[in-house]
C-alpha cells in the first residue's frame, strides 16, 4: 500500500508532454524565421545607406578641418563610394587619377545601383562646409534579394552640406 502511495505522489512530466511542447516550439520558431530574415535584410540596407551618408559627412568634415576641397565619388559600375581630396583639379567637380583617396567603401552585394544625378557622380565640399556639384545633389541606391527590396534617396543641400535620407522597403 505504501509503495502504491509513493508512486501516485511522484510528480514529473511524461514523454508525451515533452514531445507536444517540442512540436509547439518548433512551429512557433518556423513562423518567426522569415521575419528575422526580412529584418536582417532591412538592417543591412539601412546600415549600408548610413555608411554612404557617413562618407559624405566625412568629406565635409575633412574639407572644413583641412581647409581644402574634398569630394565623394559614386561608382555605379563597381558599387564603390570613394572619399577623396580634390587636389588634381580643384576647379572642377571630378575624381581624377591624381586625387588622393581618403576612404573607399564597397557596397554590400545586395546593392545593384548607387547613382547620383550629379555630373561625373561627384559631390565636392569646400573649406567653408558648403558643397558644389553640377546637377541635383541627389544620390539613389537600390538593393534587392529574394525577400526584400530597398530604395533610398540621399539629398545634399549645397549651401550647408546637410544630408537628408529616406528609405523605402518593399
Structural features, described:
This protein has one domain (14-169): minor pseudopilin epsh domain (minor pseudopilin epsh fold). Helix content is 35%, strand content 34%. The chain has helices spanning 2-9, 15-66; strands at 70-75, 80-85, 101-106, 111-118, 122-125, 131-132, 135-144, 149-156, 163-169. A five-stranded antiparallel sheet has the order 3-2-1-5-6, with helices on one face. A hairpin with a 4-residue loop joins strand 1 and strand 2. The longest helix has 52 residues, at 15-66. The protein starts with a helix and ends with a strand.
What coarse outline follows from CA principal-axis ratios? elongated
Radius of gyration from the CA trace? 27 Å
Provide the number of structural domains.
Answer: 1
Summarize the biggest pleated sheet. 5 strands, antiparallel
Succession of helices and strands? HHEEEEEEEEE
CATH H-level superfamily title: minor pseudopilin epsh domain
Overall structural class, as computed from helix and strand content, comes to: alpha+beta
Low-pLDDT residue intervals, each spanning 5 or more residues: none
* Helix fraction bin: 25-40%
Going by CATH, the architecture would be 3-Layer(bab) Sandwich
Number of helical segments? 2
| Measured distance between first and last alpha carbons | 69 Å
Task: List the SSEs and their pairings.
Blueprint: H1 2-9, H2 15-66, E1 70-75, E2 80-85, E3 101-106, E4 111-118, E5 122-125, E6 131-132, E7 135-144, E8 149-156, E9 163-169
Salient structural properties:
single chain, 170 residues, alpha+beta, minor pseudopilin epsh fold, five-stranded antiparallel sheet, elongated
